[in-house]
């Protein structure tokens, strides 16, 4: 597969992933652009990988996690989405829930990425572990902590 074909086939999916982990459309576009730029630089190596998309997805996730570690990084859920700028997706109705955005914003970057990769990207623990460079048991522990935090958040809003 040539790079241009990959971008046509998977570019919007990368933007959606970036949006889902960051909660910000402009940041999502930046994440996708950075991931594609890095993939382009080593495209010969990327296209030879067993799963080139997995390789590029890992670049995007690592860039997001790196962004969250920088001092200048601030994150706030978007108040309202511009329908002209979003990509239609069946999961959008769930993801755009204001309560969900607030709850996800309360998680650490790694917890958020684990939940997005598990429930939005439908990846197994081994694949998530590979994307993050951690052990599958760490993925399960992180997901468990994140879900417990979401449950506590939900309970505190319903009391």
TrEMBL record:
A GO molecular function held by the record: DNA binding
InterPro entries: RNA_pol_sigma-70-like, RNA_pol_sigma-70_dom, RNA_pol_sigma-E_actinobac, RNA_pol_sigma70_r2, RNA_pol_sigma70_r4_t2, RNA_pol_sigma_r2, RNA_pol_sigma_r3/r4-like, WH-like_DNA-bd_sf
Any one Gene Ontology BP term: DNA-templated transcription initiation
Gene3D superfamilies linked: 1.10.1740.10, Winged helix-like DNA-binding domain superfamily/Winged helix DNA-binding domain (1.10.10.10)
Pfam families named among the record's database cross-references: Sigma70_r2, Sigma70_r4_2
Keywords: DNA-binding, Sigma factor, Transcription, Transcription regulation
Domain RNA polymerase sigma factor 70 region 4 type as annotated: residue spans: 98-150
Sequence ranges assigned to domain RNA polymerase sigma-70 region in this UniProt record: 11-72
Family the UniProt entry places it in: Belongs to the sigma-70 factor family. ECF subfamily.
Protein name: SigE family RNA polymerase sigma factor
Organism, scientific name: Kribbella turkmenica
């Amino acid at each position: 597969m040539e790079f241009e074909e990959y971008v046509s086939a998977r570019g919007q999916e990368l933007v959606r992933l970036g949006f889902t982990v960051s909660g910000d459309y402009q940041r999502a576009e930046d994440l996708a652009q950075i991931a594609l730029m890095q993939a382009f630089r080593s495209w010969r190596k990327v296209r030879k990988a067993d799963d080139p998309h997995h390789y590029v997805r890992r670049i995007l996730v690592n860039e997001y996690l790196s962004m969250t570690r920088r001092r200048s990084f601030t994150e706030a859920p978007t108040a309202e989405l511009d329908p002209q700028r979003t990509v239609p997706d069946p999961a959008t109705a769930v993801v755009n829930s204001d309560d969900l955005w607030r709850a996800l914003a309360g998680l650490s970057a790694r917890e958020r990425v684990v939940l997005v990769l598990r429930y939005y990207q439908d990846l197994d623990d081994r694949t998530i572990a590979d994307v993050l460079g951690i052990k599958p048991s760490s993925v399960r522990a992180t997901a468990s902590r994140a879900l417990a935090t979401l449950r506590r958040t939900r309970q505190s809003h319903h009391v």
